[in-house]
Write a structure and sequence with these properties.
CATH class: Alpha Beta
CATH topology: Transcription Regulator spoIIAA
Strand content: 25-35%
Shape: globular
Order of helices and strands: EEHEHEHEH
Distance between the termini: 28 Å
CATH superfamily: STAS domain
Helix content: 40-55%
Number of strands: 5
Strand order of the largest sheet: 1-2-3-4-5
Number of domains: 1
Length: 113
Amino acid sequence: MELKVVDTKPGLTHISLTGKLDVEGEGQIGRHFEQLTSGASKPTVVDMSNVTYLASLGIRLLFTCAKSLAAEGKKMVVVNPQPMVEETLRTSGTAHLIPIARDVQEAFSILGT
C-alpha cells in the first residue's frame, strides 16, 4: 500500500492511496494516515481511485479517522473509488459518514473549499 500527500490547498489534507487496503496495507500506512487526517484536524480528501481492495481493517481506519474529524466539525471525502471498493464502502455503511465524490472538484465542493 502506498500513501502520497497531494499538495493542493492550504487548510486541507489531500491523500492519494494505491494498492490493497487490507491487513498488510493498513499496517504499512495506518499510523501515517491517522497523523495526516485526525491528527491534523483538517478537511480531508482521500483519492481511492487506485485502491484495488478494501478489507474490514481498512474500513475501520477510514471510519475511525472520519469520525474523529467529524467530532471536530471537519469532513472526509473519498474520491473515485473503484466499483468493488465503492460497493464495500456503501454496504458497510461507511458512505453515510464519508461522502463519495466522482472527482476532486466535487470533493472540494462537498467540503466547501
